[in-house]
What we know:
The chain has seven helices and 14 strands.
Amino acid sequence: MYWYNGKLIESQTLELDINEPGLLYGATVFTTLRVYENSLDSSLTNWQAHCDRLKLSLQVFAWQQPNWQRIYQGAQILLQHFPVLRITLFPDGREWIIGRNLPVDLSKKQQNGVKCAVAQPEFSRNLPSHKTGNYLSAWLAKNSVQVLAAEEAILVDGVGNWLETSTGNLWGWRDGDWWTPPEYVGILPGIRRSQIIQWLENQHLRVREEPWTPELVTEFEAIAYTNSVVEIIPIHTVEQASGSLQYNPHHQNFQQIRRLFSMTTVPFWYTLK
């Protein structure tokens, strides 16, 4: 079941023209959101922020704006069946929405953390400030570290600075502050990342947006990654060429971020930088 170009379709296949740019070049933009309280209007679902990011990419690429009312209609239908929605937009304004379930082992990962590995620098994301359909590099990076029994890859720049994971934004705790790589280093400015930054600042907790150098990453007490589906997942081990790094996946300060996800009635401020 999926929604495509204004229609609900019961099928496991989607028919596209053989000259479709989205098929040939990955010429699409997309966003993935988790529906809270079975509502697009929930503050944690953050529907408008996801739409705003899509709109910005469409404006930058000079692509046609879709029928946003139709997208909302399709999302409303699919959220009755799925807690996670992926909204894809084509250059000519067509929309495609699919649904999926939460990962079956999500609670376990949230509680105990996961192992990651640093990917090769060549696996850098294309147009990192936009969420385009050309996600090959992130997909390859994640697959490449599975030989190390790692569940996530950490993407790096040419000098070894950590940028983000293949599916989310990085967070670290050190010296009484939260740290996250800044947007200007070439990361996707995640919707959840923006929510968390505002949440922490509202709690009078400082967030330091600075590059994660090879030296800095050895000094964190705890690290994690976030995205709009998994919320926050601690990282207990990172494998890299110079050896493995160990972090505390049960650090008490993770609760400062986790409290956000139990406050569904709190209004959030969001800005698209």
